[in-house]
């Protein structure tokens, strides 16, 4: 048992009372929520921090409202320590409109002012780092709370590396309660926790909740260290949660739980600094506040359900006259490089991130050449850490910076999938549109260069249909600068720009085929069409990205050799993408061909096809889909060519349909 003299933090009674009352508030809120769950009044889940409250409360003694906190699934204590918003929290967990995120986030996904939490273990590490990057020029810091089970996540170490290299003011507080759900740390953790951080040159120390005076001092020291030295630090705090992982069963040894219950610092301090009546009065005041909050939450209405709204960019309306088709014979790679130069000159908030993007190398495909020489502080050569780079850019975007990330080969974007799906696309939604995450990820996809199974894939179909993301694919019918300009002008969300790598070496096709004209449409998504001047149309070809100029050749050959007139519809935004606006145009043809380079099962074309089939206008049409064979991509350029859609096999497939038709007609 602790002696009375050590009860007071810094021998300061008022401070100790303040801290312990906050701990009691957190505890009583969570106990009441557990009760509401057990009574069937709440749904979903909660993770209580009962027993661990001191950590968040103490940390918040040393930070300002301009600092930022990132938390996790076990976030109520951190949230209340920082915001004191009992009412907003309770209403949120009751799923109501007055909740801090109007019931969309719920228990694990809280946002208020500079407080963020989410439910992906470790996922917030690079996001916190990216936000801390924006604090380089001021006195602010960021703190992230993680659990010991999260030490198993690779993203943690990608982020350790980056925060140490860039010297970012981020304090990582590890609440080591020995368990991840029901699994004890001894089954999952090898080596030394502090040494993991120290190996990256991060200043690291440890403390525990049972020596609260020392914890208080360490917390003060670590926060001052990060603030003063503008460098990361790591604090491990040993603790124990006194309740189950979530609202369910507790499988831990009862003797162990009882052992820690006896050591519970919140109870010990409460018992020792307040006499019985004082305690009763403090508890009843807190309980009254909680009951009022619950009463209000129950009476409150539910928010309206919001579908993610995409703003129209008016790419062509705004820029067509300027530079849809700049000078002739411009290579797409040169145009992209010019684009980045122009954008960075115009907007000092743009930061480029990527692997090997600095001079003299200038990126694997040289798209970023010259930029680091011109803007040395705004081009970051990152470690090979795709997940962390994307998460980092998400944190940057929360601060108002405009990150443009290069993923060297599109094949590697899969490593960042969690950051794209659960962070960059979702934060604005789960925080009820109180934040935005304008980020551009640009990446080369596709084959045709013999790079083999892991450097040639067309993977964008895996990202289609994620609400809150836009997917674009450039082609060589327009200058990509207008797309980049439009995105940055309207920037609200994550945009993934697919730059098919075969395009880099191609020139802009400034002029349509003879007898054709280009038509540009912004609604419902930016789309380029190459339409015949004649009104007679046999075939509609729908494609996007790097295949476009092959399709133009096919159109030419269909006309010259086979007397068939075809038209091209080429969306630049491939998600979201709607064909309904084009139905009058498409229905002029009897054959509709959907072509893309990626694998055929559940891809862009399948979605477009189902949109068409759902529409009565097309019931008499024939449909054809051309995509790659269902196999990984071989390295041999000969085999690769056989399995990917190309001019020969697309033409063959189209003509087979016409020959079949002819045969049927001649039999009749
Ligand atoms: C990436 C990810 N994997 C698994 C889970 C499921 N999960 C939720 S909490 C938890 C345990 C986390 O343990 P720890 O990091 O020690 O935090 P604690 O619960 O002890 O506070 C797990 C596995 C998750 N939310 N996110």
TrEMBL record:
What residue stretches are annotated with the Transketolase-like pyrimidine-binding domain?
Answer: 330-506
UniProt name for this protein: Pyruvate dehydrogenase E1 component
GO BP terms: namely:
pyruvate decarboxylation to acetyl-CoA
Q: Which UniProt keywords apply?
A: Oxidoreductase, Pyruvate, Thiamine pyrophosphate
Record-linked CDD domains:
TPP_E1_PDC_ADC_BCADC, TPP_PYR_E1-PDHc-beta_like
Coiled-coil positions: none
An example Pfam family from this entry, by short name, is Transketolase_C
Select a single GO molecular function from the record's annotations and give it.
Answer: oxidoreductase activity, acting on the aldehyde or oxo group of donors, disulfide as acceptor
The family database entries (Gene3D superfamilies) matched by this protein are listed as: 3.40.50.920, 3.40.50.970
Organism of this sequence: uncultured organism
The cofactors required by this protein are: thiamine diphosphate
């Amino acid at each position: 048992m602790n002696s009375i003299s050590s009860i007071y933090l810094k021998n300061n009674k008022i401070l100790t009372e303040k801290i312990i009352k906050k701990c009691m508030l957190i505890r009583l809120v969570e106990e009441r929520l557990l009760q509401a769950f057990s009574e069937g009044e709440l749904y979903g889940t909660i993770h209580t921090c009962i027993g661990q409250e001191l950590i968040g409360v103490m940390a918040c003694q040393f930070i300002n409202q301009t600092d930022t906190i990132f938390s996790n699934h076990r976030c109520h204590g951190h949230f209340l320590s920082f915001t004191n918003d009992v009412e907003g929290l309770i209403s949120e967990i009751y799923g109501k409109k007055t909740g801090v995120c109007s019931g969309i986030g719920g228990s694990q996904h809280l946002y208020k002012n500079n407080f963020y939490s989410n439910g992906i273990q470790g996922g917030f590490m690079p996001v916190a780092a990216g936000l801390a990057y924006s604090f380089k020029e001021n006195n602010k810091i960021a703190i992230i709370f993680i659990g010991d089970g999260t030490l198993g996540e690779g993203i943690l170490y990608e982020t350790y590396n980056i925060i140490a290299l860039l010297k970012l003011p981020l304090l990582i507080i590890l609440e080591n309660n020995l368990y991840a759900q029901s699994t004890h740390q001894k089954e999952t953790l090898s080596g030394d926790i502090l040494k993991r951080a120290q190996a990256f040159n991060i200043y690291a120390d440890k403390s525990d909740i049972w020596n609260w005076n020392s914890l208080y001092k360490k917390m003060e020291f670590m926060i001052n260290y990060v603030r003063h030295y503008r460098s990361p630090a790591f604090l491990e705090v040993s603790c124990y949660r006194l309740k189950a992982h979530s609202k369910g069963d507790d499988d831990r040894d009862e003797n162990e739980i009882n052992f820690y219950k006896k050591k519970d610092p919140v109870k010990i301090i409460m018992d020792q600094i307040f006499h019985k009546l004082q305690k009763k009065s403090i508890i009843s005041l807190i309980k009254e506040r909680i009951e009022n909050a619950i009463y209000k939450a129950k009476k409150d209405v539910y928010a309206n359900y919001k579908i993610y709204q995409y703003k129209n960019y008016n790419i062509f309306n705004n820029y067509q006259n300027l530079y849809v088709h700049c000078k002739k014979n411009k290579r797409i790679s040169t145009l992209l490089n010019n684009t980045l130069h122009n954008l960075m000159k115009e907007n000092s908030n743009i930061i480029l991130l990527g692997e090997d993007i600095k001079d003299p190398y200038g990126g694997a495909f040289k798209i970023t050449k010259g930029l680091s020489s011109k803007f040395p502080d705004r081009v970051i050569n990152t470690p090979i850490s795709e997940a962390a780079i994307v998460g980092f850019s998400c944190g940057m975007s929360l601060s108002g910076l405009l990150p443009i990330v290069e993923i060297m080969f599109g094949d590697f974007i899969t490593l960042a999938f969690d950051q794209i799906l659960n962070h960059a696309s979702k934060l604005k939604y789960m925080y009820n549109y109180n934040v935005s995450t304008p980020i551009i990820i640009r990446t080369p996809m596709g084959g045709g260069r013999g790079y083999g199974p892991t450097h040639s894939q067309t993977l964008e179909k895996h990202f289609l249909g994620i609400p809150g993301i836009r997917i674009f694919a450039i082609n060589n019918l327009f200058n990509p600068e207008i797309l980049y300009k439009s995105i940055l002008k309207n920037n609200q969300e994550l945009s993934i720009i697919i730059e098919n790598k075969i395009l880099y070496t191609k020139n802009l096709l400034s002029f349509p085929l003879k007898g054709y004209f280009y038509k540009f449409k912004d609604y419902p998504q930016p789309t380029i069409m190459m339409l015949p001047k004649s009104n007679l149309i046999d075939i509609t070809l729908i494609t996007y990205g790097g295949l476009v100029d092959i399709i133009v050749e096919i159109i030419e050959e269909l006309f010259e050799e086979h007397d068939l007139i075809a038209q091209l519809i080429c969306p630049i935004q491939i998600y979201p993408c709607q064909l309904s606006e084009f139905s009058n145009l498409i229905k002029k043809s009897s054959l509709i061909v959907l072509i893309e380079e990626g694998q055929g099962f559940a891809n862009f074309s399948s979605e477009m096809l189902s949109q068409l089939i759902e529409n009565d206008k097309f019931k008499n049409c024939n449909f054809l889909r051309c995509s790659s064979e269902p196999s990984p991509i071989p390295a041999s350029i000969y085999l690769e060519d056989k399995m990917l859609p190309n001019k020969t096999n697309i033409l063959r497939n189209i003509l087979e349909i016409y020959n079949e038709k002819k045969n049927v007609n001649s039999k009749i």
